[in-house]
Design brief:
It is a single chain. With about 425 residues, the chain is mainly α. Helix content is about 80%, strand content about 0%. α10 packs across α11.
Length: about 425
């Protein structure tokens, strides 16, 4: 407890909380179509491939919007950028409530849901921006635990859809987003961890560096797997095991909640053990776990237990990777995080599409799971090659923060926070 108080005292707790709440609500809204997929699929009589397309559109749209929002935040400030985004989310939800009457309208709504998915890089950078390097892994893990919003969505949206009708859930979301807006306005404070004199080219330097692309591809497995599977699983449980629409959401919630909760632990462990070491274990567990899920399709209990294990690994991997990002790009974390989040989330768009195509054309979801397991092994090999240079330049062995600059950094952040 005393060490956690020390952690909070090294940064700005209210901004950390406001960032978490903003990200949690954004994640909740981002996966609404996935949470309500059994209802939507029944309304429009969708094929497996159409379901896959419907579920992938919000993920891809959200991914593509992350980097532009990160760039905007470098110029107007991260706090203002979050308020702009949440205002747009409210408008998007009203469109869903009043205007969705066909499958094409549903796809357009998926694009608008992507606005909520753009929050990632800005939320993590805003929440962790007050904290010195040796605590950024835990700070980013705590904000990133806002992924729990996906678990809330798949738990709450189905019974709401059954009670009010699935389109009315968009209207509820339009009102709910006002809460994190108010908290952000009242409690958040813009951090000092940005070079205000940097050029546009310097802000987007991560786009032209191999490290940025390697991080992005690894995140395509960890976060892409998390968000893609969260979106897909309500349909999988409903179609594969014949459970009710509400039960499908509840089972998905168990896995999604585990992934969100363990993200905090992943960041904390990575601060001590190193992000590279943590990711090595994570990618191995994901590869083995997803392969076993594909072969366990006749057992609801075994499938659920394996998925909970996989989501725990994916959550830890998300926390571990974003322990490394601020070490590599200390003054442009929002932009780097947004770029990595953008490309990584695109990996999530592969999941429902791969699953839908596997089911429709190969007769089973097995090969969709095997495909994603193989990707995790490929990225493990790439990371192990790249980490040799990382630990010679900007990180300690295993991916820990270089401690030589920590005292100076802590002093600078404390001075800025009290200014």
């Amino acid at each position: 407890m005393s060490s956690f108080k020390s952690f909070l005292n090294s940064g700005h707790g209210p901004t950390l909380f406001a960032s978490f709440l903003y990200f949690a609500f954004s994640c909740c809204i981002w996966v609404l179509n996935g949470a309500m997929a059994p209802f939507i699929g029944e309304t429009f009589d969708l094929s497996p491939a159409q379901k896959g397309l419907m579920l992938s559109v919000p993920i891809i749209a959200g991914a593509l919007m992350r980097f532009p929002l990160g760039i905007l935040s470098q110029y107007i400030g991260r706090k203002k950028a979050t308020l702009v985004e949440m205002g747009l989310i409210a408008v998007a939800m009203l469109f869903g409530f009043f205007m969705v009457h066909s499958f094409n309208d549903l796809l357009a709504m998926g694009v608008l849901l992507g606005i909520a998915g753009a929050s990632f890089g800005v939320a993590l950078s805003l929440g962790s921006g007050w904290f010195p390097p040796q605590h950024k892994g835990l700070a980013m893990g705590l904000v990133g635990a806002g992924n729990v919003g996906t678990a809330v969505s798949v738990l709450v949206a189905p019974p709401l859809a059954q009670w009010l009708g699935w389109q009315s859930v968009y209207g509820v979301a339009a009102v709910a987003i006002l809460l994190p807006m108010i908290v952000m306005i009242v409690y958040a404070k813009e951090p000092p961890d940005i070079d205000s004199h940097a050029s546009f080219r310097e802000h987007i330097a991560c786009l032209f560096e191999k490290d940025g692309w390697v991080f992005s591809l690894i995140y395509g497995v960890t976060f892409g797997g998390f968000i893609g599977l969260t979106t897909f699983l309500p349909s999988y449980y409903y179609d594969q095991f014949g459970v009710s629409k509400v039960q499908a959401g509840q089972l998905t919630m168990l896995a999604a909640f585990m992934g969100a909760a363990v993200r905090v632990i992943g960041g904390w462990i990575s601060d001590r053990w190193g992000g590279v070491n943590t990711l090595t274990l994570v990618l191995l567990v994901v590869a083995v776990g997803l392969t076993l899920v594909g072969f366990a399709s006749s057992s609801l209990t075994l499938t659920t237990l394996l998925l909970i294990t996989c989501f725990a690994a994916l959550g830890a991997g998300n926390g571990a990777l974003f322990q490394l990002v601020p070490l590599r790009w200390p003054t442009s974390t929002a932009v780097a995080g947004s770029m990595i989040g953008e490309i990584g989330a695109l990996g999530g768009g592969l999941v429902p599409n791969a699953m839908g195509l596997s089911k429709q054309y190969l007769g089973s979801y097995l090969w969709g799971f095997v495909f994603f397991a193989a990707l995790s092994l490929v990225m493990l090999g790439v990371m192990r090659v790249m980490q040799i240079r990382w630990t010679r330049t900007w990180a300690e062995k295993g991916g820990r923060a270089r401690v030589a600059t920590a005292p100076e950094s802590t002093a600078n952040f404390t001075k800025a926070r009290n200014a």
